[in-house]
Amino acid sequence: MTYHVVVATDLTDYALETLRSRSDTTVALVTPRLRAVQDALADATALIARDDILIDKELLDHGPKLKVVGRVGAGLSGIDIPAASERGIIVTHTPGVSAIAAAEHTIALMLGLSRRLVSLHESLRDGYWLLDRRRQPRASSPARHSASSDWGGWGARSRASVSGLRDDCIGLRPVHLRGSDRRPAAVLGRAARTVEPQ
Fold first, then answer.
1. Which of 1, 50, 92, 169 could form a disulfide with 9, with the two C-beta atoms 3.0–4.6 Å apart?
2. DSSP, res 43
3. Helix (H) / strand (E) containing 33
4. What is the pTM of this model?
5. Distance (Å, whole) CA 198 – CA 189
6. Residue 84 contacts by C-beta under 8 Å, 6 or more apart in sequence?
7. 172 has a pLDDT exceeding 70
């Protein structure tokens, strides 16, 4: 049997080479536009896409041979899971695929806030330099505090990065409790140390 994979997103060269290296697999790259994906699904056994494509029952109906839908991303929003399940189509995703990028973005935002970059940018746009170093002793202080919530891998990666900046990081991890008490619990961690809920 030959598997025909429709790729409607950007993948790394390594991922594409891995798919193409199989003798029983053909790969078709299509633009992530609804009409292009619909046309490409006629002979497809697998679809790989991000969340810019709504994978609903109507789209699935264009792929009568479809067996697998792979989402490049942590979530499954935008995929009609009941319609796929009814057809026996396996739906997969890639949790943690964006954890490093999300952690880097989190650190960049934290540093921007600590250095008041938005205020400085606005003052420059208005034609003056707002920065008065006497008013910013905290910005260069080694003792800063930050917090992150541990929703997936990015929380741990952010705390690990912050620990290199000598910040004290408070890590909040939601806990889902069974029974009558369904209040979320939070725990405190220091820097990159992982602390499990109590």
1. 50
2. G
3. none
4. 0.61
5. 12
6. 55, 60, 69, 90, 91
7. no
